[in-house]
Amino acid sequence: MTHSYFATVAPSLEAIAAQELEQLGAKNVIREVRGVRFEGDKQLLYRVNLWGRTIFRVLLPIAEVKSYNAQQLYKSVQKIDWEIYLKPDQTLAVNCTGSNQHLNHTHFTALQIKNAIIDQQRDRLGKRSSVDVKQPDILINAHIYQNDCILSLDSSGESLHRRGYRPAVGLAPLKETLAAALLDLAQWNSNLSFFDPLCGSGTLPLEATLKALNIAPGLFRQRFGFQTWLDFDQSLWEDLIKEAKESQLSVLPAPIIGSDRSDDMIKQAQSNAQSCGIDRQVQFIQRELSEVEPLTSEGIIICNPPYGKRLGNSEELGALYKQLGDVFKQRFKGWTAYILTGNKELGKQVGLKTSRRIPVDNGGLPCTLLKYELY
């Protein structure tokens, strides 16, 4: 049976996510703000959760109801037959986004929806589900827009950017989903060497290695939301897991390297690499930026230097950006470099001519991915 799904993504990454969904087999893919609508069967739902690299959550819309105010929302939610989706011995949680004139507090709105569901259970069955905000059996997503509310089942549970391999993180790490998107925006492929000279806890090299070895990022997670749905198909899921494991590659076509001046950061990156079983493939080395050298004649550099919003002082970072530009120009001829920055003035300090500027949202901060062709 074909269903309509909605994948939530970071702002500015809708096109990348849409392309990824099409590659995974999604049909009728439509980009929207902060998300992508698409169609497919249950197997596709499981596959997108398992393989999606740039997506936060995959929602299954089940109803669109009137929600002019709290009373109308409560009555509308009660008209839905919740026995199709939820048993009283299962736990639930409700997350809400959006608002209107009378429903302008997401916690209050979520509470009305939860009350409507458990009151229906109590009236019909004499017992009700308990709330578990940390790991519910059924996670319901509610989105208020004007006087309507779209109710969906969250098939992912915890956000898909939390792969499960990265207990050790730096001070301001990139989300794994953004790192994967940057690789796509840079048009990197596994036949090209990859280098991050400011790798921190290693997110960019790790995501590059997982992609190059065709390792599904969802393999490291303990659970997905759909695994506690009433229609969960265990055998279908096991087949997809088996297929994913059998499709993995064992050798990188080209080197993937991360370096950082901090020995602590390199140890964190190596620990994360061990967690996903790729520590013998990806290389992490402790090295000052002034000492880095290319291992091959061509490749892609992507780095995410501090830009004064979360780490460091922007006035003190100009020297770092200038040094990046000098190192790129002097040592990496034949390569293509990308710098993600949220500070336009710091970007100017690189001292190289950009060949492209790509707008990117990084956790709510408007940033630009600067491209440099190094001749």
Automatic annotation (TrEMBL):
One of its GO terms (molecular function) is RNA binding. This is Putative RNA methylase. Keywords: Methyltransferase, RNA-binding, Transferase. The keyword Methyltransferase applies. It comes from Gloeothece citriformis (strain PCC 7424) (Cyanothece sp. (strain PCC 7424)). It comes from the Bacteria. Residues 44-155 form the THUMP domain. PROSITE patterns: N6_MTASE (PS00092), THUMP (PS51165), UPF0020 (PS01261).
